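Annex B, item 7. Sequence and structure tokens for protein A, then protein B.
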Amino acid sequence: IGLNTGAGKRFATKRWEIEGFIELADRLTKDLQARVVLLGGPEEIERNKEIAGRTKFPVIDSGCHHSLSEFMGVINQCHLIVTGDTLALHLAIALKRLVVTFFGSTCHQEIDLYGRGQKLISDADCAPCYKGNCDTMICMKGISADDVFHACKEVLNTNGLLKC
């Protein structure tokens, strides 16, 4: 399962919290016996290092300096991609990978998953706002690791990929 942990500078508000990724990685590994792969670009080097250093179970850091075709190759090796509304989401959709994605600052109606995933949509009053930055990030804080874990479990189960 690939966890795309960043969102780029233009829309930092698409980025889910580090704590959420840590908890999710541990639950996916412990409860589903999944192999977790951290994905991202150059801006996620420190973020992924922190996540990998704080998980209770080992994760694979795929690196953050891939070319576009290499990044697509890594995504294509994953059964499921967990990401915000990012390049990784669009590549995963194009590659017909399963997806669990979260929307806060952007509009979920603009993205079709073609029956291969689940959207977690913030219920914050201010969402979607399309802001590049936000002091509170209330929209992304409202999406819990438990919500994301259960969406992952459901998507994997629906597609016959759940081992337990």
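Protein B:
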Amino acid sequence: GVAEAVNLRIDVVTAIIWIGGAFIMLMFGINAVRQNDDAQLVSVAAQMGWAAERIYVPASRATVVLGIIVATLGGLWSQTWVILGRVGMAITMALGIIALTPRAKKVAAASGPTAAIVATARQLVTLVKFDCAALFVVVADMVLKPQLSDWTTLAVMAIAVLVAAGLWLIPTIRQPAIA
């Protein structure tokens, strides 16, 4: 009934918090990069770390747990869109654990906008671009619910992931690494 639908779709709310928060922080980061304001960029990157710990990670965990409950109760584990969604969420969560969180913590622990910290903050913004793009593809997957026969939808989603990867890799290749 209605109560079950409301209770089970809390995963949608947590997903909105997860991606919406990440998107807003990304926009702040892009603005700081475009303004060429190193102090603002470092501040935004530090705030990303704060928000990750208190908002994104809890929201992502809740989304995964609630999604598991929905998929189990609905018998959806063999559905193409559920499998793709799990893969996409695993990628973004791994990116957060392996790359985003360590960089954000490094920036937050810094005493100021040194060249190395600014470079790390720029890397963080670039990584968040890919993360947000991947999250948008996961959301599209969950909304459109493509099956293997929906090759057009799957192809568009694959192209979106490739474009996001390009947006992630190209600036990283062009920027020299600062230790």
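Comment on protein B: The chain has a mean pLDDT of 86.
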